[in-house]
């Protein structure tokens, strides 16, 4: 290629900079102001109570303070048989009157029986009356009219609250479905019906109930074991820090220990799986397949099957073989990577503050996520209540039309369809704002993605600036400037907000397209033919690749911005061609670094995970008394493992950025300088030695 024109006096990150990509910076600030405005509008219109509290037929919230419904927190359905499935109950409305009640009914009763005996048994009448419309107390009104006007339910069934709604209290007795030990009930319209009809009406509710009880147990487990989880994460943090500090002295040794450690752990896993597999031989029921027993909430069931252990063993053997083959073919390349890793560890040793920079990124992203989530909830609940005509007669021509409850009784609907009512249906609206809620949600998601990508970009650029100032210091550590991280952060914000926003914008557009594709795929699941499925799959794959590629380009562009302070496009182009000229080294270094750091994360997460496993299953005698009693020990265990992985990922991401920055600087160093006294190399002696084996004369 063309020889590049260099400033011969170049000595590290340039200080006399100017602002780059100003237009993008202005747009970014305007968009942020718009985002704040959108949040305010949503906050004014939205009402999260619509999600928290159920709404009765009059459009009032159950259990809301300072209303007649304050102590009535549960929604009661007059005729639950009209609701075909719980999906109807939770999302849309059932075509039956709904009332707020303080507790669900606990007995079978029909209106006919209660009305007939109200003189001798007033207590029954008073009990039944609390499930009638407020203020109704007229046992002389004819039954037909009461049921037509839906003043009272025709029957009540023993129920229990679930999701703040009364559902029939099902239980199975000797394999027969019962409600309060009965299999039949009177429906209050002169018929005796089977409990299975109720089951149809609340179909699938048992699955949800199962899931809910599991959820409650998990919540209890967290409440008991949270501080042990925090201790586990603290240990993970210490381990990660220890690793990064040790790398500088023992990178080579440590990595071979790493690799053999992982091979050993997987080997132990294979042996353990084989032992379990062999141990279960001949035990009745262990030869069933996973398919035979279906989905179970108790995971211990699976561990009693030989098939489960066999599958684990095959997977582990595959992983083992792949790792061993990679080691055999990549051993020389690993040596080069280790030299750069030692250099990276040294750089981090001089600029320790960089290790804690991910906390800043994490906080920024947490703010973005919480703002986005709150805005999304307020937008989703910013509809007005919509009321519709509910008629008992199927042929009423006004059924399901919208109505206004205040003027409803003066219209002729009640004359045409006796007993018709104007009841609350759902939250929506016809105004301009409500029509565009979907667009607002899209905009909310898009700006959220843009801000998250900007926070990540800011972190990458800041770290790159700090590490570049280390590399371009001729005498290390004497020439490293004071406060390299702060000055680099200041430079990135002051001069390069526009460039970082531009890179983040490109990435956010691609991510938004991916989100929309996922949404379409989800929506069209049932309807699409094989061609559209194939097309969607191709599109998803292409955009996934594009996103990966853009992340790689952006990362290196930000490093160039941090060093030279040029605009985004120029930096991206320079970085790309510089990497293309060193393409073999890039591929090897990148993959080896990623591989080794990934092994590091696995080792930290695995080590802490094994420790937590022995702790929570009371295998450590010293702490056996301290262990909390848990429903599922895998709950804190999984949390500790995932948490440790994320903590290690935070520290190692700084380290990966360090190695990438040093590598780009190193390539620049080779192209700028030739090791003569006029143009000395800036790299450390050890790097020079390792790479000195190959021909390193500057490209003419």
Task: Reconstruct the topology from this structure.
Blueprint: H1 22-45, H2 49-52, E1 74-77, H3 86-90, E2 98-101, E3 109-110, H4 111-116, H5 122-129, H6 143-149, E4 155-156, E5 159-162, E6 165-168, E7 170-173, E8 176-179, E9 184-186, E10 192-194, H7 195-201, H8 205-279, H9 290-293, H10 306-350, H11 357-380, E11 384-390, E12 402-403, H12 413-416, E13 421-428, H13 432-435, H14 437-471, H15 484-523, H16 530-564, H17 568-581, H18 583-616, H19 634-672, H20 685-691
Antiparallel strand pairs: 1-2, 3-4, 5-6, 7-8, 9-10, 11-12, 11-13
Characterization of this structure:
The protein has 700 residues and is mostly helical. The protein has three domains: 1-45 and 225-381 and 429-692, no CATH class; 74-190, no CATH class; 384-426, no CATH class. It contains 20 helices and 13 strands. The protein has helices spanning 22-45, 49-52, 86-90, 111-116, 122-129, 143-149, 195-201, 205-279, 290-293, 306-350, 357-380, 413-416, 432-435, 437-471, 484-523, 530-564, 568-581, 583-616, 634-672, 685-691, and strands spanning 74-77, 98-101, 109-110, 155-156, 159-162, 165-168, 170-173, 176-179, 184-186, 192-194, 384-390, 402-403, 421-428. The chain has a three-stranded antiparallel β-sheet with strand order 12-11-13, with no helix packed on it. A two-stranded antiparallel sheet has the order 1-2. β5 and β6 form a beta hairpin. α1 (22-45) packs across α11, α15 (484-523) packs antiparallel against α16 (530-564) and α16 crosses α17 (568-581). The longest helix is centred in the middle third of the chain and has 75 residues, at 205-279. It starts with 21 loop residues before the first helix and ends in a 9-residue tail after the last helix.
